[in-house]
Amino acid sequence: MNTTTRIWPRLAAFAAAAIVIQLSLGAAGKVYYLTQLTMAVYYAIVVMGLSLLMGYAGQVSLGHGAFFAIGGYTSAFLTTHNMAGCRGAAWFDLLDKCGVIVSRKSLYDDTLVLTVAPWLAFIVAVLLTVVIAAVIGYPSLRLRGHYLAMATLGFGLIIHCILIGSPVLGAADGITGVPSLSVGGLAVSGKSAVRVQNYYIAWAVAIAVLVLLRNLVESRMGRALRAIHDSEAAASAMGVNTPKLKLEVLMVSAALAAMAGSLLAHYNEGIGPSESSSFKSVRYLALVAAGGMANLEGALVVSTLLVFLSLRGWFGTYDNAVFGIILIAIVALAPQGPFRQLGLRMNRCRPLYKPGKEARSGAS
Amino acid sequence: MVQALQYFFSGITVGSVYAIVAIGFNIIYSATGVLNFAQGEFVMLGGMVAITLASFLPVPVAVAVAVAIVTLFGCGLELVFFRRLRSHSILHMIIITIGLSIVIQELALHVWDEKVRSLPYFTGNEASSVKLLGAALSPQVIWVLGTAAIVVALLQLFYKRTLYGRAMRACSSNPEAAMLVGINTGNMRTAAFGLSAGLGALAGCVISPISMTHYEMGPGLAIKGFAAAVLGGLGNPMAAVVGGLMVGLIEAFSVSVIPSAFKDVAAFAILLAMLFLRPHGLFGRPSGVSVREV
């Protein structure tokens, strides 16, 4: 079975679905749905990253809400914190010379606002999150067992406390007024004029992430990961450096969460502390499980759909409970994900063996 | 000096609650290998149920009934989820406890709303105080410390002297061998869940007058209890008592160094430091790793 060659039809299907959804929403006069869809696609990036960690490396992280929030807050803080008062300081002049300081007029009066350029803030946000993930992951992933889950739960609680308790980060209100992130004429921004454009930007990013992760999973690293998931002892015996590999996967996964956080902070023009709550982290777990654990396409589809419904308010006040129940139900009843189960059912209808095939593969 | 003593008593008070949560962790962990993320929810449920019952029952009866209800609830969880899922991997069971934690919290939110509640003081009231070595203590502190001490002593007796306790220890050290000598390991697991839930509920009742009961209190308690359990060495219930008291004390004294809003960071720092330096706990010995997948 060669899955790498089969990815292009799937990507084409995703792209076609995205276009069909956009066109039909446009025809139905419900273009505003695209805003929530765009957000849902960004959240799906977090879920795909977590799927790599959970489904392939078999490690639970309850810190992805926090990683997302660190990414988003770093971007939001750096692009809104006015550094006009720092003019004259040597480090500031150096940054200015490098061209990473942007200026704009304040929204309220004519004062000059000097902030870090959004693209640099984005890079800083991702790097910072990766470093933090490494610090958390290093001690807990050296051990066998599920220490990472507890360590990240504690980490998430603390980040939540810090975000709510820090006036400089807007305390309970979060940070607002985050400018748009523009790269080469494309702007990640929540302005309704660029809604359609942003919808496609989000899909493009998500599909790029999917291709990236797909290649990672089909590589030597991916095979080593699956070996760890099946039996860590056996993988180690075969020469897989399990702690290092698990740490790398955690870092990739955290980087994706931070990336989504940063992009979403620009898209929503702000971010609040609720992003780091443990409910959000559990929601990501539930979405990974619902997507089929080790199934990146499933994660993308299911999380886009469910997060979209959640953002539309379908689950009402039971929002968190719904995701908790999804998590329990899927893991208890269909741990391989609903699609695997469905696929098996459907396969049962078809003849499983084609005569002659075994003979050929047996001979080779 | 008096202030240090005051910190000390507040430290061992919260510390003894962490210790009970940590014991609860260990009971389930050694019986099933599962890290139970819903451990803090047992504490919350105990407090909440007792508060509801206390509105029409005397407090001691309310506490006793609440502990009984949560014990049954713990047994029920094992019967409904974990017994049926014996073939699932540990990873899946852990994920289920994470889901349970969220669902129980949401349920509590809908049953009891988001108000912070508390049981009345067992003796006296908020204003009454007892002088001990020059520090002024609420009588409830004595209740918490006394309860924790009795719980630990009884558990020790249970594990060392009773047939049932010995059977439970046998199950955690070697389930197959325990089964061979005729111990019903499935029932032992159910009992472990019940015991762990009941202990948590008791802790939730005695601490409720001091630190209040809130539907969201579970995860915070769980992580501190886990830090205490790791400090003592995961799987060793009695070492968890020392771990719990240490986490409580470090947290209480950290208030004099860092802003109290960030005192939760202390417990987490301990957890990470322990995982770095002595993952087998202060009292445990590093053990060889068995190849058998647990």
Could you give a quick summary of the protein structure above?
The complex is a heterodimer of chains A (364) and B (294). Chain A is built from 15 helices and six strands.
List keywords for this structure.
heterodimer; A: 364 residues; mainly alpha; two-stranded antiparallel ribbon; 15 helices; 68% helix; 5% strand; B: 294 residues; disordered C terminus
What does this entry look like structurally?
- The complex is a heterodimer of chains A (364) and B (294).
- In chain A, the strands form three sheets. In chain A, strands 1-2 form a two-stranded antiparallel ribbon. Chain A has a two-stranded antiparallel sheet with strand order 3-6. Chain A has a two-stranded antiparallel ribbon with strand order 4-5.
- In chain A, a hairpin with a 2-residue loop joins strand 4 (181-183) and strand 5 (186-188).
- Chain A is 68% helix and 5% strand.
- Chain A has one domain.
- The longest helix of chain A has 27 residues, at 242-268.
- Chain A is mainly alpha-helical.
- Chain A contains 15 helices and six strands.
- With 294 residues, chain B is mainly α.
- Chain B has a domain at 31-216.
- Chain B has eleven helices and two strands; from the N terminus they run ααααββααααααα.
- A two-stranded antiparallel sheet of chain B has the order 1-2.
- In chain B, a hairpin with a 2-residue loop joins strand 1 (130-132) and strand 2.
- In chain B, helix 10 (237-254) crosses helix 11 (264-277).
- Chain B is globular, with a radius of gyration of 19 Å.
- The interface between A and B is large, with 43 and 44 residues.
